[in-house]
Write a structure and sequence with these properties.
The protein is an all-alpha fold. It has 18 helices and no strands. The longest helix is centred in the middle third of the chain and has 27 residues. The radius of gyration is 18 Å and the shape is globular.
Length: 301
């Protein structure tokens, strides 16, 4: 059974989102446990990566150029689009907050499942996460004005737990454990990290189902907005990085499409407005399809 799920993991992500939509009560009951799943996913993913190589990647200027594209450029661009089309203020704030959000911590596991460089994806993910407190603060300052109060202490605590904690633990394990024994263990457990990814589309889509039950047309609008955001992030990043080679371009594209809306919500909470959680839930459908689309593009290009 596990072997089947791992073999078809990319498609199963989309099915997890569908199941979460069909069973909203189960989805909403899983939602509070997602930060814990996030921690274990990050730890297992980092254990399978050579930390020295990751640090080298983070020192590379191209990672921070990508991170600026991922957060700052898209935040400004989506804000301009929302302003030009006079979007609802609450939805506009949610859209810009999504654009400012760092990449999903599950991205390296997805990239590994696609056969690409997971270390590069991890460096991109950490880079965009480190930019998040600045970018989300600017977003809230613009849309919420003087009422904004961003809990940076809580953010940095989460940053330590979800990024620096797993990195330090991985450094320690790699330094102490015998190399051959560690490699054997990682070969056995690394394929199963993708299974943890299923919890995110399943647990986040419940808020979108609540909106769908209350107002189906509004939910459809949110879904269209979510699809447009994912398509924009994915296609623009693909075009920007196309000259760097197909693998780098596809890695940048799927890293841009995946957004860690759970972490952003944990940091800013109610300041993101009532539209953020339903939009984050709607994002799970197109986001969970991105790995399948990326795998198809990888074969066709």
């Amino acid at each position: 059974m596990f072997a089947f799920l791992i073999r078809h993991s990319l498609l199963c992500m989309f099915l997890a989102a569908i199941l979460g939509f069909v069973f909203p009560s189960l989805s909403l009951s899983v939602f509070p446990f997602l930060p814990l799943v996030l921690f274990f996913l990050m730890t297992l993913t980092l254990l399978g990566i050579k930390q020295a190589e990751l640090i080298v990647r983070l020192r590379n200027r191209k990672i921070w150029l990508y991170s600026s594209l991922h957060a700052i450029f898209y935040m400004l661009f989506i804000g301009l689009i929302g302003w030009l089309f006079s979007a609802n203020a609450s939805l506009q704030l949610a859209m810009v907050a999504v654009a400012a959000t760092g990449s999903l911590f599950a991205t390296p596991a997805i990239v590994r499942a696609l056969g690409f460089d997971s270390v590069e994806a991890m460096a991109m993910t950490i880079g965009t996460t480190l930019l998040l407190p600045l970018v989300i603060f600017v977003t809230l300052l613009i849309y919420q004005g003087d009422s904004v109060h961003l809990d940076l202490v809580a953010y940095f605590l989460r940053l330590i737990i979800f990024v620096f904690g797993p990195m330090a633990f991985s450094f320690l394990v790699h330094a102490i454990a015998p190399r051959e024994a560690l490699d054997r263990m990682l070969v056995k457990i690394s394929p199963y990290t993708i299974l943890l990814v299923f919890a995110f589309p399943f647990g986040l889509i419940g808020s979108f189902r609540v909106l769908f039950d209350q107002d189906p047309m509004a939910a459809l609008n949110y879904l269209l907005v979510a699809m447009g955001l994912c398509a924009l992030f994915f296609s623009v990043s693909l075009l920007v990085y196309w000259r760097s080679g197909k693998e780098i371009a596809l890695t940048a594209a799927i890293t841009s499409g995946n957004r860690n809306v759970l972490l952003t919500y944990s940091i800013a909470g109610a300041l993101l407005g009532p539209a953020f959680l339903p939009l984050a839930g709607a994002l799970q459908l197109p986001t969970s399809l991105l790995p399948v689309i990326t795998r198809w593009l990888n074969k066709k290009l």
